[in-house]
Specification:
The protein is built from ten helices and twelve strands. The chain has about 325 residues and is α/β, with parallel strands linked by helices. Strand 5, helix 2 and strand 6 form a beta-alpha-beta unit. About 40% of the residues are buried.
Length: about 325
């Protein structure tokens, strides 16, 4: 995979962890600038939550692991009263806290009422990848009980289905190593100023399956395949001759123009709805020629429209 960037009382909770609670759990009366940013990290066990949290910690975020959802507003209040010492908070919510999980939606609604800027990052992965990871460390899935690993994965996926639908950013780690996951987190959170919208444009091959974290899917198989041109076959869509072949085909340039206009409309809607992240998956047969060239072209158009854009070529080099 290739990734490119375009442009105060104290008590104890049920797990024995010491926590601080405010007197009324309310950020009202505090200056808006004092209320910290909040990122909630969740997703499938084994999909990389700890790596994502560690990345944010390295970027200066205050990270709390396995915090019961009911205590998230209290954590935000404590950050707001820290006189600017805790400006960004990341909370890892996972299935180990399932007895508190029903409180999450109530807590999120509470945060929205208080005007807290919060984002949900959801780590996703395929069943096959998760099974391999659990087997490699010889640990059971936290929800498998007396069943198999796949039973635990299925139960967790159902439990998290609604949260995944509400996520601002979904990252599929099925084919990512630790360094590639960190690169994606850095691309989304390392900037000094939060842009209005960030986009990931991902090329892929249909024969390897659809990206599960895609918000929009584009099919470039309506264009002739450079694979059948012997002198172009060894190269990728990053090659100038391959790109020229793709965009000299009837309808190719018109497609880029029309789809770029459509993306402007969609981006404006996402901004109005408070969505900060979008993943655009661009596919062709093998993810080597047409999708790669088109991804680069679309990313350049988005960047020219003020959208901070990362290009990922998921399947380039797999052949």
């Amino acid at each position: 995979m290739n990734v490119n960037k375009h442009d105060g009382q104290q008590g104890h909770n049920g797990d024995g962890a010491q926590v601080s609670t405010g007197t009324n759990g309310d950020t009202a009366g505090l200056p808006e600038a004092a209320i910290p940013e909040l990122v909630i990290i969740s997703g499938m066990s084994g999909a990389g939550r700890s790596t994502a949290a560690k990345c944010l910690e390295d970027l200066g975020w205050f990270v709390v692991d396995n915090l019961p959802p009911a205590l998230i507003p209290t954590m935000v209040e404590l950050g707001a009263r820290s006189q600017g010492n805790v400006a960004r908070i990341a909370v890892v919510v996972d299935v180990r806290g399932r007895r508190f999980f029903d409180n999450l939606r109530e807590s999120l609604s509470d945060l929205d009422t208080r005007g807290v800027t919060r984002r949900i990052v959801f780590l996703e992965s395929s069943d096959d990848a998760l099974v391999r990871r659990f087997e490699s460390v010889r640990r059971p899935h936290p929800l498998q009980g007396d069943g198999r690993i796949v039973d635990g994965i299925a139960a967790e996926r159902e439990l998290l289905r609604e949260l995944r639908g509400d996520a601002d950013l979904v990252i599929d780690t099925s084919s990512l190593n630790v360094h590639e996951l960190r690169a994606k987190m850095d691309a989304q959170f390392a900037g000094e100023e939060e842009p209005e919208l960030r986009a990931t444009v991902m090329s892929f091959g249909f024969k390897y399956g659809l990206p599960v974290d895609a918000d929009l899917v584009v099919d470039m198989r309506f264009l002739p395949n450079p694979h059948w041109v012997p002198e172009l076959r060894p190269y990728t869509g990053l090659n100038e001759e391959v790109a020229a072949y793709v965009f000299n085909q009837p309808g190719a340039k018109e497609f880029i123009d029309r789809y770029s206009e459509l993306l402007q409309l969609i981006a404006a809607g996402y901004r109005r709805e408070g969505k900060r992240y979008v993943t655009i998956a661009v596919g062709c047969t093998g993810g080597k020629h047409r999708s790669v060239a088109t991804s680069e072209k679309l990313a350049a158009r988005l960047a020219s429209q003020g959208v901070e854009t990362v290009v990922v070529h998921r399947d380039m080099g797999r052949e």
